[in-house]
Structures
1.
Amino acid sequence: MFQREKAETYTCPTCGCELKVENGELRCDEHGIFFAYGPQLVVRAPEKTEQTPRVVLPWENTSAAWI
């Protein structure tokens, strides 16, 4: 059975610079925190201060397109 090798370094998907490993997180000084999702994919981590966006319910929408 073949096993993929874990990447030693990751690059920022926005600017291409090498991401620094700090406390188990991948960090770009300019673009924030990322995490490895598989051996080759890097995904932006959710911001801790970001609130969940409020979902607008159909009757709260000002357009009458749903009627």
Note: Strands lie at 20-22, 25-28, 32-36, 42-44.
2.
Amino acid sequence: MKIGIVLTGLVSILRNRDWRRTKDNIKENLIDCWPTHETKIYLSTNEITPEILEFYKPEKWAETIVNFQLQRRTLKSIELIQEEDLDFIIFTRPDIVFLDKVSSFNIDFDKFNFLFREIHHFYDGRHFTCDNFYALPFKYLDSFRQAILDPENLPFAGHFHNQVYPGLKKLITDENIHFIQEEEGYSGPAQNKFYLLDRYGHIDGDLGPTSIEKLERLKIEDPNSVFLPKRD
């Protein structure tokens, strides 16, 4: 199987994202964890340098400006792979730190995969889902694009990434949608068992540590903290 891995988002220290802090984790836990499959990398980021190209060796890449709307960044990523020979696609971000190998996730390779329903914001009628990781068969790529573009599917301004599910359900039906984690979860930095977002310059809020260093320090100082990633 040919798996396309699409990294889209900010990669520079301009907004406290530095792809060099997370690159080894992404390489180990996302790119190199598929021994029986072929992986191809695609980049849609605000800074394309010789260093990042040398490390990821992407098949294709596109440079986007910092103030691109999230919607435009994702659509740019979809454009990169529309004509590619791929069987399955994983969309995620370059400032992510996976807490385990993605190959160990409960992914259904025949369905569109969300990580989880967003706690407090799914069953209240908004149907928000985790917006930091999508995994889907190539055949659903155009449906993903349509769900992003259709304004009727995105009633809550500013949260279009969280709102893909309702529009997608109309296009491919619920039978073809899979939640990797059945129970609800938080998309925040480390309030789930899947990942941390390394936004190291951010002020700590109520969603857990915002950098790798803070996560490691919290494990030592308060191993029972409610802000540590949730494990089974």
Note: The mean pLDDT is 85.
3.
Amino acid sequence: MSHEISTLCRASVAVATVAAVLSMPALAGAADRGADQQIADESALTIDDVPTGFNEEAADDSSDPQPGAACRAIRKAAKAADAAPHTEVEFRTPGDDSGSALINNQVSVLASPKRAKVIFAAYAARDARRCLTGAYESIFTEQLDDPTAKVVVNADRYTPDLGDASVGYEVEIVATAQGDSNTIYVENFYVDIEVARVGRALDAFGFFNTRNPPPSDDVVAMTDAAVARLEAAL
């Protein structure tokens, strides 16, 4: 693999930052934090839920939302995330010449359905798509660290059949860089983000693939399984 393509693949690791941003909706105030934490722990995806070839890794939940007016509502939601019972898990495949993949899931348990609705609204708002595309463009451009690099991000919104309310975004990132021999290298990255409200809880998922979109059948199987567990736990 060329140095330029390797650099593009390393940039893919940064997408976990945005996935975490969009998968941390929460507010403080649960009546029984211990019980709510147990709900979150037992409802998140497990290694048995994900396709073969993934390894579980520690999730990084310390990332901050991107700046700018488009991300204002998401920043407000994320500021309260640390105060609520939540569990975040992450699974990755080893990166190689064939590409790499990442799965991120966070379950957050709120004090009431009303609070969950308020937080969910930030991720379903019209500005959320603009926040998402701007964040990915910024992250990939920074990671490439190449003045000739070009990053183009397109995101389409859709509505998954999950929980009481849900929103999804299919994102394609095209990163172009110029090699030492003036050769142009192009790499495609794909992200599928889904956020579902289930009663007073929120279940958020991020699926990332290089070269090809995340398989839709796998995405549906994982989200359905996790949301069903959360519904049962609540």
Note: The radius of gyration is 17 Å.
4.
Amino acid sequence: MNDVLLITYKGTAAGQRILLTTTYKITVVPVPTDATVFVNAAIEAVRAGVGGGDLIETKYRACLPVEYELDSIRGQIIAPNRRVYSETLRGVPGTHADGMETANLAGVITLRTAFAGRNQVGNKHIGPIPSAGAVMVLGELTGAYKTLLGTLATALMAQLVPVGIAAVARPVIYHPDGAVPPNTDWVESAIIGETVRVMRRRTVRVGE
């Protein structure tokens, strides 16, 4: 109870590692429940495929071009005590109809708590995004693509119910200050960015 769960979606595109991370606080859990069993069940809840709850995966892949591949989903309890991680291989591509021309463009989902302050928001850079006119026009995201991001944002704000376990984990912004129980704030809302963002670290030959 009150442990913080980190779920990481690990993918690749154009030879680069792409990560999407989300954090949850466990609010309901049967006692006793083995931590590894819980984490594995949480991964099952977010993944697609046979037996998966598909809370996140399909909505995430719908925002990404076929050149992207979701390699695996990793789960780990990171607070108050860090435990070993579990990982499930996926090996499935993005499902957006349009392809990408560059790996450094993204759309942004900003998750917010009920409070003001820089430490009360979490930006999720969703990319690489497709380069077609159905996605962006003159640097602005289209309404159709923002709808896809909105669907993903709704899923990212939803509580996670591990497959086969009467437990609940709720999305949070985690403040890693060592407090016990862990210092977190509930995610209450999301904003979809209007413009295309450039992920500088994914720009070829940055620094030359």
Note: The helical segments are 35-46, 57-61, 143-157.
